[in-house]
């Protein structure tokens, strides 16, 4: 595969071919003109150690062009009247004002260099819009089989007042692919948005993803995020709680084997009173896999009566695996209940012994324990099908290890 | 509040805030230069190797950037600090009667000679840049225990000091303030406990800054040979001034096989002091290191006592209390490196913030590959007393070995209204009720301290809270 670098002409052509409105073209060009001046995504640094080396991601982000195929399936969903589920490119044409309003409303492209490259080069995407009071019962389920050398995908999910929607997206395939993914989720007053992501790209691919939601009053934004593939992933899943009485659940799971490196950041910022968050991540690391986890609960001055909890558990099944973790609390309001907990350890000898006493052989016992380890992450959020796929994937990964 | 309590509290304030007129027999000009460093070294009549180390540290200091990851240090102007001030020709006396009256009076007010008689195995007292009094009770001196200031140790135990002083425990390249310390250190303690000797009573060193705008840079070097056992207590205070003082101490502890060292600190610097310390212990197999730290005073504290568990079965315990009132930023924590199998660490941190104060727990636990059977637990609890205060918790864990048992927990919250209401319904006034809740919050830690220090810490907490609740 010959690799073609992104340049200003490529960005210009991309925009021309689509006959994009001027504001979108300007956004691309401005982002491309600024990325070099923007900082790289934040990575934890402790004395003598940087948790993740972003260089390879950095090189690939602008070293590869997207190609032209629309390979996302599941967009033609059967949805109630007024609900829009469309390819984002088409939505720019058919629902320009709606897209314009929501793009950059939660994640801003000038936060870091990789987001800027994304804003310049994005092509594929999903747009979901649910009007006031509409509840979409069936989850919107998309699957993307990536064949390109790079893919820059943007998803926007907007739920107006008292609307409800669940979106689950999978991404698979890849061949030394760079996958850049931005997800913006905007929940209006009383709205509920559930967003699930399953990433199972090839182990020689790279992922940069930033997912963020915002809530109106009494709204919910919930996440489940599963990280299985890629050589290197830099991921952020986050919620800004802007409206009083809102809540968020931020669940995650990862399974690293070989020499995979996952840098996973989750955070919640409480800007409003009477709000809650529950952040929960579980992971298993085998071989020489590494996870760098950063979880932050931030409670700002106006946010009183906040309940916020965060847990990360990692199971290390190989001696060479490495788990780094930094669960943080940043609390500016005293009228809160916040806690976090993190554990790291290996499979309990007693559990193995017990299984052995029941006639389960050692390899089987390990598989059962590892597969069972993820179960607490499941069942709380409305993603039964996605969770079943997670289970299958975990099982598959166990088989091939 | 009863008149009696009020009087007691006034007396407490006088204890810490008492200031003597500044006097000196040698005072460096403000700021740092090679010339000033040479002068300090000459004044102390040091061997060449020590001067070389000072100058090398100074080069590191100039090269290193200011830390940008912690509390703001922009008000800290090292160029205007007086690095060395010798108040009197009298140094290292072993009889309080030989200490000049004004200085002795200061330590009397702080209760040092009294504590020495009652509960301590030895006492050192540093005033400004030099140790004015140092004494070890005969029963341990006879067993070969050494407790002296660093200058005396260089004269009498040159090889030991040369081998251990800022070489492989805290090298001057460690950080900006370790480098600063290495260039202009003065005073402090040298403690040597021979193999198998237990010092049954704690040894205490007290550090007092009296003058405005000065910096104190004492060095503590503790060597506990195999099977030795010692508890070292450090206290510190200064009167309040409008100009900033700086304290950049350095503590190096070598814990031998199966030896045990407890290092306790009750820090009560005045609220114009930048307190930027580097403390580290290296522990051999079966050894135990305990760091007990109460950080009450200072404007800004950056303190993360660190332990390298180098031998199999070595263990570490950190107990940290941070209390931040108005204008204070108390950034404390713990660092533990598990470098050998079956090592264990326990970190407990309790932070209290009020009146706009800011506390931060910042900790790092590392487990090296091959360090099997490591157990580590980190517990951080923060209590915020009002809406103006801030509390952050920032632990970092780096685990490179699967055979570990690592747990971290943290909580942040406010005093429960119900607790206060209940106590008030029992006829206890609100401010007293608050104090009771806070004392209860830190009790799991104060009970680890010797009684005198637990009482002292509780009094300091009361004093702090009294100021705000009036």
UniProtKB/TrEMBL annotation, chain A:
Residues 147-372 form the SUF system FeS cluster assembly SufBD core domain. Pfam families: SUFBD_core, SufBD_N. One of its GO terms (biological process) is iron-sulfur cluster assembly. Residues 72-141 form the SUF system FeS cluster assembly SufBD N-terminal domain. NCBIfam families: sufD (TIGR01981). Belongs to the iron-sulfur cluster assembly SufBD family. This is Fe-S cluster assembly protein SufD. It comes from Halorutilus salinus.
From TrEMBL, chain B:
Residues 207-441 form the SUF system FeS cluster assembly SufBD core domain. Transmembrane segments: none annotated. GO terms for biological process: iron-sulfur cluster assembly. Residues 133-204 form the SUF system FeS cluster assembly SufBD N-terminal domain. It comes from the Archaea. Residues 1-35 are annotated as: Disordered. Belongs to the iron-sulfur cluster assembly SufBD family. This is Fe-S cluster assembly protein SufB. It comes from Halorutilus salinus. The lineage of its organism: Archaea, Methanobacteriati, Methanobacteriota, Stenosarchaea group, Halobacteria.
